[in-house]
Amino acid sequence: MGLEFETVLKQSDESLTNKVISFGRKIVPQRYRAIVKDFLFGAPKIPFERPYRFVGGVEALFYIKNTSDFDRIVSARVEAEYRSRMEEVFIKEKGRTFLDIGCAQGLYSVLAAKHGLFVDAFDPDPISIVSLGANIKLNQVGERIKINPVALSDCEGKTPFFIDRGGSFAPSMIQTVGGLQEKIEVNTTTVDNLIRRKNLPSPAVIKIDVEGAEGRVINGMKNLLSSSDKPKNMFVELHQDYLPIFNEDMNSVYETVVGFGYRVAWSARCPSGLLCHFVAN
Hints:
With 281 residues, the protein is α/β, with parallel strands linked by helices. Helices cover 37% and strands 22% of the residues.
């Protein structure tokens, strides 16, 4: 099964653009890549003076305060098709629950709420929670989104969590990059425990973006994924450089998902070569 996934991904690696970017990744150390990108393409003027108007399946407003906000919300290079496919599912699942794991500034949570879904948004990062709350208020969707400042994982307890107050680097349970200079402690729980305690309804759609800890999160929802009430659609972002730090790789996560009876309906590697997205249903 793993070979099949890599074969599908290779199809997105054959363009000249992706080959050039892949070559660049090999010769430019990671700590210098942002500098090189800004030199070649121009650095955006961040923060934006006024909210950015996002136009997709619905219209929404977002504050752009840092490079993470810009890359995810403004720049279409990162995950435009992934986002479009998610909105197509949101339209079909109106009135159901969307579980946004690693919600960050709330792009997908807000879009889901705008499409008429109820959202449980999880993220232990205090910077993300503040941004999420601001974007919820900006779009007047507070009645549809529940904020959960907790890390979802494969066990219940506490764990170290590394953050960047400037918002340039995505937070993680392990210090994946040097820019994550601050270490805090956060609470963890599992999807299965939340559902068992009736603190979370069975979701129709799940999105997972947890900077390498995807395997842990999925292991914490095995009962849900084995049930007749399992979500119809899963959207997963994988970071090939971070997964090994968690003793995982893209194929192992893929095989776990497929092992619960899902098929990968779509997958693609981002031009940077760092990220892969797949949709399972």
